[in-house]
Amino acid sequence: STRQSRCHFVGRLILNKRAYNMNQPSTLSSSVIPTWVDASLFKGMLRGIERESLRMQSNGFLSQKNHPKALGSALTHPHITTDYSEALMEFITNPQTSIAAALDELRDIHSVVHQQLEDGERLWPLSMPCMLDDNEENIKLAQYGTSNIGRFKTLYRRGLGVRYGRRMQTISGVHYNLSFPDQLFAVLQQHETKPELKQLSPQDYRSHRYFGLIRNFIRLTPLVMYLLGVSPSVCRCFLTGREHHFQPLVKGTLYQNSAQKELGIHYNDLHDYLEGLQKAVHTPYPEFTNLGLDDENGEPIQINDHVLQIENEYYSLVRPKQVPQAGETPSQALKNRGVGYVELRAVDVNPYSAIGIDEISAGFLESLALYCLLNDSPDLFAEEQEQIDHNQTEVVNRGRAVDAKIIEGETIVSLHDWAQRHLNAIQDCAILLDQMDGSQLYSEAIQVMQQRLDHVENTLSAHVIKDTLDNGGTWNFGSMMAQLHVNSYDQHPLSVERQQYFAELAQRSVQKQAQLEQDNDISFEQYLAQYR
Questions:
Q1: Is-contact 53 91, C-beta < 8 A?
Q2: What mean pLDDT is predicted for residues 500-504?
Q3: What number is the average pLDDT over the span 73-93?
Q4: What is the end-to-end Cα distance of the chain in Å, rounded?
Q5: Which whole number is the average pLDDT over 400-418?
Q6: Contact at 8 Å (CB) between 179 and 341?
Q7: Are 464 and 414 in contact (CB under 8 A)?
Q8: Of 223, 348, 416, 463, which sees the most CB atoms within 10 A?
Q9: Which residues pair with 96 in a beta bridge?
Q10: What does the pLDDT average to over 89-94?
Q11: Residues 208-222: pLDDT tens digits?
């Protein structure tokens, strides 16, 4: 999960004020749900959440402490690890059968972590960092011990810092992992009319449908940015030494009015996707060659000089995923067993939630994913990708303007009408998931999104702008929310069983790391030479 291209979202939705005419007719859409699809087919859906958060010192600066020992090994712990810097924690839930269960587990993890933070350290509640000092080297790379795999992971991060700057590695996000049950794919395949789709193996058909979901999710990222985007401002410290085109919001806080262009890898089928990824992992890139592989002391500074050091360096808004088995790369897992789930990555940390995401966002994302799965999804080529990039930029720069526009093929439509048309169709999917879940959660999520679409002041980014101004800057606003979250963690009761569970996991993870360090049968230099 890489963040160098994540500045796509740095300041995503500081937009001009919009006042929609509430009397405009909304464009109605026909349902994407076939008559033979019913709620029972969705029993067995699974979702898991990954949430990143920086540890901040009590004075607001980035933590310089090591990962808390009591939390175990960041290398081998299944739920509590670090991302790119030692201070950037990552919390990972198990796959869960309900949204409530996933959020409950995420709360438990936050509570366990909070108990082990020392000297007034807190979890920073925003995607964008605050109070970084002028020296990039003070952003410590994540450390994973002396095993070859541990040193390799740290070197990868050093390479990212050399290539893109360490500040980029301090941005946090939420990744939402989702899988649909096999019985749904089986029924979808039975009703296919094209013989070539009917003849696919269940594994290949499942991958085919997941790639359709991915293409549609990419098409709808402007909608996700508008409805869930919550990083309208950035602390000035983030931009030290960088050229930028930001405008001051209040002293020390800036907002962005430009968006970076997305890298392109084809999502038209699994084979093409893996081929593009492998090409990037094996192709030298002159700019990275010029950086050198080692420093003046002969210490390696990047794994290689290729477009990507490893597959995970490729940043995208949504990823096809399969759980790797021992020794497999992510690509090999996908090649061997097809797509097992999708990772929705265009999601900001919600500063108003103590765990970075709430059930409303989760319900919306799942309804949207189902809509993306069931809707027609033609192949996605460079020309359409350029339009999508343009649409994302329009939402970032002008999403609040009454004349904000979306390009669809040969036509140009208002952002509001485009979003309304999709929201209407997503609502049908929400109703279906409510029937599966026996709740109103999914429909309630769509109602909240409708409010955000109709009244721009209801968007999360608008709330953040107001609260940032009311509190006199990003640091003050973030600190206030961090303290509220501390109170929330303190009030979250952990059963004795759960405390025992996390204590045992921490202990076991330390033993696993020690075993890996003992098993080093070749030097790190040899290990790296083999990889290079």
A1: yes
A2: 97
A3: 97
A4: 22
A5: 90
A6: yes
A7: no
A8: 348
A9: 47
A10: 98
A11: 999 999 999 999 999
Count the Cβ atoms, other than its own, within 10 Å of residue 401: 16
Please say if the pLDDT value at position 396 is more than 90.
no
Written as one string, the DSSP assignment of 43-75 is TT-EEEEEEEEEEE-TTSSBP-SPPPGGG--TT
Q: Which residues contact 35 (CB under 8 A, 6 or more apart)?
A: none
- 244 pLDDT band, cuts 50/70/90, is low
* Three-class DSSP category at 375: coil
The span from the CA of 384 to the CA of 215, in Å, is 11
- DSSP secondary structure of 310-351: SGGG---SEEEE-PPPTT--HHHHHHHH---EEEEEEE---T
Task: Give the span between the Cα atoms of 194 and 185, in whole angstroms.
Answer: 15
Classify strands 174-179 and 341-347 as parallel, antiparallel or unpaired. antiparallel
Residue 52 and residue 349 in contact, taking contact as beta carbons nearer than 8 Å: yes
Residues 6+ apart with CB under 8 A from 439: none
Task: Output phi, psi for 29, to 5 deg.
Answer: -120, 155
How many Å apart are CA 149 and CA 458, to the nearest integer?
46
- What are φ and ψ of residue 37, in 5° steps? -90, 125
pLDDT for 266: 85
pLDDT at position 247 is 56
Closest CA to 240 of 252, 223, 226, 225: 252
Residue type present at position 409: G
Tell me the C-alpha to C-alpha distance, in Å, between residue 466 and each of 16, 147, 337.
Answer: 14, 48, 48
CB 154 within 8 A of CB 144: yes
Question: pTM of the entire structure?
Answer: 0.90
Are 153 and 144 within 8 A, CB to CB?
Answer: yes
Cα–Cα distances (Å) from 349 to 171, 223, 230, 299, in that order, read 10, 17, 7, 36
Taking the C-alpha atoms of residue 362 and residue 378, their distance in angstroms, rounded to an integer, is: 26
Round to whole Å and give the CA distance between 157 and 142: 7
Burial environment of residue 267 by CB neighbours within 10 A (0 to 12, 13 to 18, 19 or more): buried
- Residue 186: CB partners within 8 Å, gap ≥ 6? 202
